[in-house]
Amino acid sequence: MLAQILSTMLPVFLIAGCGALYGRYRTPDIQGLNTLNMELFVPMLVFAVLADQQAPLQEYTSLALAATVVVLGSGIILYPLARVLKLNLKTFLPPMMFNNSGNMGIPVLVFAFGDAALPAAIVLFIVEMLLHFSVGLYMLDPHTSILKRLRLPIVFASIAGLTVNVSGVPLPEWLLETLNMLGGVCIPLMLFALGVRMLDVDFSDWKLGILGAIACPASGLILAWPMIAVLDLPGLQVAALWVFAALPPAVLNYMVAEQYQQEPHKVASLVLISNLGSLVVMPIVLGLVFAAGYV
């Protein structure tokens, strides 16, 4: 089991470490890299996975429902805690709800469970992203135009991929292979960018960051348990949901907070310290998943 955990987490740590090491001595344009990734490579991977006829997407509807409950339910569960501690709800709750299903979730699931986990990882990522750009932005500004915010390449890629899959029209093998090769760039690039971002950790609000590092995975795991008990999910999807539920906040939370001037420094502490905390949380969760024999 230890070998399985190491074989999963070591590539994650090493690639992110390369990003941190490079960022320490250079000043890479991470915003430009993230834009390229989110507008080109990630949509290509999403389309390729969803359009592949070998991925029966109707089998992932329950997983998508469970992911929705985990994301939205985390905000409901942690609302009383935020009130008691007198935290700004717009600062604290979004990072606790919208997790790092892209930069960390997809790579960890693929490294842990192989390419067979990629469709589940993509479904979880799409659910989190759509909720983030709809519910998440509404939480920060109720006057935000949701339709405008959902005009994203990943949304168009999701719709196109689902259409191809449902229609049953097979795509040429050379086209799928091209899309998979280009889309495959996004996984190491996500980890590399995350490593560079780790250099920006602000410890001035370390108490809030530690609270987030505990509360974010705890709320997700609490919600995942009843969903797994109620829904008849296959073993691989159960494993993917446990990992998804334990993920730290998405780096995107910081970018959105900066855009809306919602205490970006506190959100940065929440996001980055929680991602550092995942170095402890994720091996534990993976160990429990491997021990339970879901895959």
UniProtKB/TrEMBL annotation:
The chain crosses the membrane at residues 6-23, 35-51, 63-85, 178-196, 208-228, 234-255, 267-294. Its main location: membrane. Keywords: Cell membrane, Membrane, Transmembrane, Transmembrane helix, Transport. It is a multi-pass membrane protein. It comes from the Bacteria. InterPro entries: Mem_transp_PIN-like, Na+/solute_symporter_sf. Coiled coil: none annotated. It is found in: Cell membrane. The keyword Transmembrane helix applies. Pfam families: Mem_trans. Belongs to the auxin efflux carrier (TC 2.A.69) family. This is AEC family transporter.
